[in-house]
Write a structure and sequence with these properties.
This protein is of the alpha+beta class. Among the domains are: 112 residues, Rossmann fold, CATH 3.40.50.170; 110 residues, Methionyl-tRNA Fmet Formyltransferase, Chain A, domain 2 (Roll), CATH 3.10.25. 30% of the residues lie in helices and 21% in strands. It contains ten helices and twelve strands. Helix 3 runs antiparallel to helix 6. GO terms for molecular function: methionyl-tRNA formyltransferase activity.
Length: 324
């Protein structure tokens, strides 16, 4: 979400209606009252100094010409949910949670042409990241902070702009968009803490994914494993490899081994939503394992590796060549 601020100085009426007459919407934005000359707009007197107008927009819906005009008039402001220059890019909140940052904040900055999140800082405030907060919860908190900061800046915008400072050259990090591949758990490489961070960062957007006997399975509800469960002989009595799945009957969760420990899973999606108990009865129970044709090494969660766009493109080219 971008925030544009345009200063509408001057006696020129704000256009929009036929014949240059202001439309009711623009009349409201410009602070115009009822026209003494009737509906044709004649005799309208525009304020010498109309208020600052704030436009919220998505760049895919906003005309380039309008952006250029606004930038030429007095520049644009962006409310960015991180302490720039840390986490420049489209997904700062997700990367804040994903990397376990303990401090974050909001930056109000001026937009610069062709490059996002590099302009002068107008106002910046920091806040601690609540422990174990999700990206959705953090977004709500930073949204409130950003709104208050924006109002504070707009109350005296000329002074606020004059106090702008350049971003430091040190501490620059980038927050690229999240792809479906990010949601694939790497059981041999990721610790339990890293998996839970991933879940809190993107779980409400893209469910975490893995492989079960060559089928993609989504992990819907992850929970931390209680220390008392970890003393179970099933978990300590024999070596287990990452991805191994054990059903814990007392807590009714699936225990999955990762690089350094265990995570708990309450429900999964495999063709349909299944509770941990449903998954155990259908896929882990001893009667199923005896009748299964799968090798023991397959009866565990394995890392799902999605094809990259480049590889997908090569496959399409190969298919086209075969058709020819």
């Amino acid at each position: 979400m971008r925030v544009l601020v345009r200063r509408g100085w001057g006696p020129r009426p704000v256009g929009g209606g036929p014949g240059g007459r202001p439309s009711p919407q623009w009349r409201a934005l410009a602070g115009l009252g009822a026209s003494p000359g009737g509906e044709d707009g004649r005799g309208v007197r525009v304020r010498e100094k109309p208020p600052w107008r704030v436009l919220f927009f998505g760049t895919d819906r906003f005309a380039r010409e309008a952006l250029r005009a606004l930038h030429a008039a007095s520049g644009m402001l962006n409310v960015h949910p991180s302490c720039l220059p840390r986490w420049r890019g489209p997904a700062p909140i997700i990367h804040t949670v994903l990397h376990g940052d303990t401090v974050t904040g909001v930056t109000i900055m001026q937009i610069r042409p062709k490059r996002f999140d590099v302009g002068p800082i107008i106002k910046q405030e920091t806040v601690p990241v609540p422990p174990k907060s999700t990206a959705k919860e953090l977004e709500a908190m930073l949204s409130r902070l950003g709104a208050d900061m924006l109002i504070s800046v707009l109350k005296n915008l000329p002074e606020s702009l004059s106090k702008g400072r350049q971003q430091p050259t040190e501490g620059v990090t980038h927050a690229p968009k999240i792809s479906a591949g990010t949601s694939c758990i790497k059981w041999e490489e990721q610790t339990s803490e890293q998996i839970f961070r991933l879940y809190r960062a993107i779980g409400n957007i893209i469910p975490l994914q893995t492989l079960w006997m060559d089928n993609t399975i989504k992990l819907l509800d992850l929970v931390e494993v209680n220390s008392s469960i970890l003393t179970d002989p099933k978990l300590t009595g024999q070596p287990v490899i990452p991805g191994s799945v054990i059903y814990h009957k007392q807590s009714q969760i699936l225990l999955v081994r990762c690089k350094d420990g265990w995570i708990g899973v309450r429900s999964v999606m495999l063709k349909k939503t299944l509770t941990a108990t449903d998954f155990y009865n259908g896929y882990l129970h001893s009667w199923y394992q005896k009748d299964s044709q799968a090798q023991p090494s397959q009866c565990r969660f394995q890392t799902l590796r999605l094809p990259t766009k480049k590889k997908q493109g090569k496959k399409i080219v190969a298919m086209q060549q075969c058709i020819k």
